[in-house]
Amino acid sequence: MRFKGFAPILLLIPLAIVTVISISVNSVKTNKSSQVLLLPTPSPVSQNQQNSASVSPSPEGEGSTPSPSPSPTPSPALEYTAVAKEAPSPSPSPSPKPASTSSTTTGGNYSVATFNLGSITVVTDSANDDDCGNDCHAKPLASYILENGGRAGINGTYFCPPDYSWCAGKVNTYDFPVWNNRKKKWMRADTLTWSGRGMMVFRGGSAQFFPCAACVGALSDITGGIVNYPALIAGGQTVLDEGPLTDNLKVNKGTRSAIGFGNGKLFLVVARAANMRDLVNIFHALGATDALNLDGGGSSALYDGGYKAGPGRNLPNAIIIK
Asked: Would residue 286 count as lying in a domain?
């Protein structure tokens, strides 16, 4: 009878405990539901984003090892630099050739074939195996190149052509020394001591120029050698002496051929409407440090995978690039 008044309270305690547990469970469920709803929803990847994440084949074109390449890799620099006054596109060649070896460009008033000296051998040759006094052998520039296993070349020294009346009795002769690499000897060696001439010689992948040929003598450890006049540039300086030149070279404009080198490059040039001073300016523009005039007019010929100038007259000697 003493605890009768507490019975309702005892009954309420379990009910309160159950209620508290129920509220706690519902609260946990509510919190979990809230956490799920608050998670960010991933956005779809756009087509542009998919493209930017793709890979492309290697620039070498082999396709064996793909690598990320969102932008094309620049092509490697070529070994040569073709320079022209108007910077036109290179002339097409009739036969394929390595771009790293040479390039012939026509622009302004001249054509220039540019070569990497370290990648070529320069030889000189004559149509005759011995000195000749009249009706000497002569042939097209392309024949010299073919017979020497070459791929390019330019005409050589002054000579007496058959279409000049005053050359009667000495047709296709020349009094300018030329190294015949097949015979390993100088043609017209007797004129090596004549003054007022320049000499350019070649050994493997190198070239040398002597504005005074008579000061050098008969070099023999060479693959190519040619003497002519006038000297144009030596050691980066203009050495052209216009004093003894005729108006035909000093004043008159015509077709001229010349050879020069500088900074590891060899330049074969045929210029139109030019005199000797124009040739000097052309070679300076090309970056040549040394240059020598060759024959010109109707004898001018330049070949690099095909004729770029000429073929002109048949020639008693020529310069060949192998």
From this structure: yes
Q: Is position 224 within any domain?
A: yes
CA nearest 144: which of 77, 204, 224, 65?
224
Q: Is 147 part of a structural domain of the chain?
A: yes
Q: Is the separation of the CB atoms in 76 and 276 below 8 Å?
A: no
Identify whether 55 is part of a domain: no
Domain that holds residue 111: 102-321
pLDDT tens over the chain, length 322 residues: 444 444 444 444 444 444 444 444 344 343 433 333 333 333 333 333 333 333 222 222 223 333 333 333 332 222 222 222 222 333 333 343 443 355 666 667 899 999 999 999 999 999 999 999 999 999 999 999 999 999 999 999 999 999 999 999 999 999 999 999 999 999 999 999 999 999 999 998 899 999 999 999 899 999 999 999 999 999 999 999 999 999 999 999 999 999 999 999 999 999 999 999 999 999 999 999 999 999 999 999 999 999 999 999 999 999 999 9
How many domains does the structure of the chain reveal? 1
Pair type for strands 307-309 and 302-304: antiparallel
